[in-house]
């Protein structure tokens, strides 16, 4: 398997201890902690992120397959059968096929990653995920050299996903990444939260997490991953192309047509909590900015 991003962020220990970390790994770790890269481990531990509570993370959700209200997913996602589950990996891969979730889990090393989650609606949380790097899953199928993008698809099962009985958006929900974004060590497939299995409302049994992009890129309950040479069009990009672009990198300098992206409301901060400034690439700038060098981020929003 390719590189591995050595994880140092567990719930009980957020101080990077491994003195043999290479710089890249260390930068990723500090970025995930929300501190300036270059700060030493001491500062890193002082500035550690406090995750939102289980209650907050599992009761304030966006999962339109179960309704558009923030509490709908917690109320209705219990109807979803998540086992058995298979993920089809196809397109430009060496070994296309349906990969059983149990076989995927047996092959992957589950890690803890504490990441910021910034929704395009200008609220945010800090989430202690469990999961594995997407790059490792793609390696199971073997990415062919001509592949340039990755397309993801959510399950379509209106009998269990009541929101899919209404044309809220085009079903199934689709998202996409450039291949280098998909292979980036910060990009994970989450299988759990707080060391427990992922609740259905958060995208069980397998959901994408791309922490430097707006939350809608982090597609839930994935059943299909397609390697392609064509830029995929995501559900939101298709519905409202002037509002949602393919990249959707968190960017406080590029506003959404209907609201400012300069600041955000932390879930759990209380009704009268002040908004906090939004960070470029959601705080992961040192790790990801190189992928967008020379690009006009107002044009490629
Ligand atoms: N994935 C699917 N399939 N359907 C959705 O409606 N909503 C997205 C994203 N993934 C969504 C989805 C949006 S807008 C956000 S902000 C995050 O999921 C929310 O993730 P959370 O509920 O785990 O906080």
CATH topology-level name = Sulfite Oxidase, Chain A, domain 2
Helix content: 10-25%
Total beta strand runs: 12
Number of domains: 1
Low-confidence stretches: 1-47
Main beta sheet: strand number and arrangement? 7 strands, mixed
Secondary-structure element series? HHHHEEHEEHEEHEEEEHEEH
The quaternary structure here is single chain
What is the name of the CATH superfamily? Answer: Oxidoreductase, molybdopterin-binding domain
Overall radius of gyration: 18 Å
The end-to-end span amounts to 32 Å
- If you average the pLDDT, what whole number results? 88
**How many separate helices?**
9
Q: What is the CATH first-level class name? A: Alpha Beta
Q: What's the overall geometry? A: globular
Structural class: alpha+beta
Q: Write the CATH architecture name.
A: Alpha-Beta Complex
**Strand residue content:** 15-25%
Q: What small molecules accompany the polymer chains?
A: ligand MTE
Task: Describe it.
The protein is an alpha+beta fold and 301 residues long. It has one domain: Sulfite Oxidase, Chain A, domain 2 (Alpha-Beta Complex), CATH 3.90.420.10. Helix content is 19%, strand content 21%. The protein contains 9 helices and 12 strands. It has helices at 23-33, 41-46, 54-59, 72-76, 101-107, 134-141, 179-183, 235-239, 285-288, and strands spanning 86-91, 97-100, 111-118, 123-133, 149-154, 174-178, 188-193, 196-197, 207-209, 222-228, 263-266, 276-277. A hairpin with a 2-residue loop joins strand 7 and strand 8. The two termini are 32 Å apart. The relative contact order is 0.17. Residues 61-65, 117, 119, 154, 173, 202, 215-216, 218-221 line the site of ligand MTE.
